[in-house]
Here is the input.
Amino acid sequence: MATWGQREDHPAEHLGRRGFLALAGLSASSVLLSGCGGPARGSAPGGALRAAFGQPVTDLDPYNAGTAVDEASLIVKRLVFDTLVRHDGTKPVPGLATSWERANDTTWVFHLRRGATFHDGGAVTARDVVACLKRTQAVTSAQTALWKPVTSVRADDDFTVTFVTDKPDATLPVNLTLLFIVPERLVADPAQKRRPIGSGPFRVAEFTPSTKVELVRFDRYWDGPAPLRAISMPYLAETSSAVTALRTGEIDLLWPVPPDQIGEVRGVRGVDLTTVPSWTYYLNWFNCGRKPFTDPRVRRAMYQALDLKEIVGKLFGSGAQAMDAPIPSTVFGHAAQEPYPHDPDAARRALREAGLGDGFETSLMWFDATGPLARELAQSMISAWARIGVRVRPESLEKAQWLQRLNTLDWDMELQTNTVTTGDAAFTLGRLYTSKANRMGYKNPGLDAILAEAGQVADAGRREELYAKACRIVWDDAVGIFPAALVTGYGLRSGLAGFTPAPNNQPDLSAVRRR
Amino acid sequence: MTATTSPLSTAPVLEPARPRAHWRHRVPARVWAASAVLALFVLAALVGPLLLPYDPVATALPDRLLAPGAHTADGGIAWLGTDQVGRDLLANMLAGSRISLIVALATVVIGGAAGLLVGLVSGYFGGWIDTVLSRIGDVQLAFPSILLAILIAGVLGPSVANIVITLAVTRWVVFARVARASALATRDLDFVASAQVLGAGHARILIRHVLPSCWQPLLVAATVQIGLTMVAEASLSFLGLGIPADATSWGATVSAGRDYLGSAWWISTVPALALAAVVTSVGLIGDAFRDVADPRAQL
Here is the structure.
């Protein structure tokens, strides 16, 4: 519904037709049913932080394929599980690992923290880490590409783990911020979906998928107990009811506040509004393997037809920034490019040169919940394309159907939001734009070589240089249109302290306390 | 619509019954008002889009979220305001009324025809045909119709034709029951027996003798169903399972505006009011028609 759907590209989930129909029917009925239930009230233990995020949490198993990089579940996973390495901005800092070093070009050694325990009382050991990595490699998910270079992992003793990669891999520490550690015996346990055991500062007390998550403090956390006794995360499907809940104090924290609703939150007594440029952005990919988008002149013409300054400015206001690269400007590896000027005449000329003087018909697919104003953005672009003679059929799909078509490359153009979860270009450029990944039919051996090298070198300066080259190629070849990087609005009730807005939409709620 | 104080309602009381006023005597003012409202909307659906064309593709971002009566960038006035991509809501409403009315009529015609056929056959022949057909209908009625509609619409995908199919599938039982009851009551009457004695075939009896008795109850059922179908279409479109993204209907507009209830109330409110007005009008007319058509109501 009108909220943020999962904004990630997904692993190929091969749904059969029957399975798909069942899914579509089920999700459709759940739309109706979810409309009937009011916001969860009063079930949180006293003093709990009540935080509502714009997307539902559907699964908490860290190795569930469909939610491997799903934002909503990552927010909860970061509270329930630990990772070897954590983020501090774009910098990796110690988590369960106290230190790490490169033994040689292809070998990383991580030293684990002593005294960390799981929620069930067991100690966190190197064997658990090994089992977790093997499990994540065994599951085909959106994380698969990140772990492919790791050829072996072993526990040298209880607190030392050694990773061996096939080629030099500089991104391993950053990737490890996505490897959630669970006890070895539970890595493939289905109970982890609902009541997972981890070693994080909070444990799951209650979880109803797509409805609410109740977390209570884990008092034996290695970094000391969190200031708050509990965190309650209801999912409020309707934007208007979520905004009302924040205004009346029924919830303490709401994010992201949609651009058009910021006015309803700003200046309200008892509510502080913080905005932060996020690592989430809109992309409109062309299926580069399908005519007429095989021709870069056509793709560039589509870009030139858009007055993105007006579209983004009028639609999102301060809620988004126009982009000048295939990744948001706050991400490592961003290099500003020359924006495509709005020039419908040049676009028409380019189409004529490409032999499409009469324009053509194509389609654009999206699902409404992918991000704020997704439908409006799609309509505005379609309207602009109609002016250069390109008739675009809007296909507003159900999410399951969108996902299936995205993964089977059964589309002409697709609009979605995407988050550079790690804040590093490797996660987006390196993972999505290689010929092997084949996510949008674009194949460029030159780009492949650049991305491969960028994934191997450790030197930040060199990596930046390489990703700048990659940005340029993706931008100049117009693999997609990159309209807007979103600014996340956090609505916070006053009376809370210790909250830091996060650019990847995944703020650390464990540090929040009541004043 | 229920303007009970209008002069029309008092007129028959003041004037003693004259033959010409006889039919008017039995038609209360609220029905006149309802007919006027309905006629207005049908007229708007027919000619409105010609006078004020609505282009679902064209957007005008500088004009987005204008309040009713505000001036647009090109100097026009948005009488009912604009939506979140700057399209005029009045034009949107007129275009939407077309889809809403077409879907309602088509559904009732198709569902009604199917229901009539099934009802006639099962009521006239009785026996195992009746048992099978009636039980199928019972099974379907036991299932919430909107859930069934959501399931079918989710599978078929969004298009106007698919909505009509979906809604017709969920509505035929009502018509079948009405037709069956009439056929059941008629088939044992003397004139049917006479026709049988004269050697008329089943088809002739069904069409010439049984069918005419079904029309009146069917029409009453149809007026009620038109209103319900419009609401059902709006519900489906509200859930995003109705009409495709490049068309508009009242339900779809209500749905698109619900995130703006706090800031731009007119997007949802205007089509919702129109829907309420039409459905109420159709209901009132259906009620009055039943009173007229049913001899027992005159006692």
Summary: The longest strand of chain B covers residues 70-71. Residues 71 and 77 of chain B are 5 Å apart (CA to CA). The interface with chain A takes residues 57-59, 61-62, 64-65, 84-85, 146-147, 150-151, 153-155, 158, 239-241, 244-246, 256, 258-263 of chain B (CB under 8 Å). DSSP finds eleven helices and two strands in chain B.
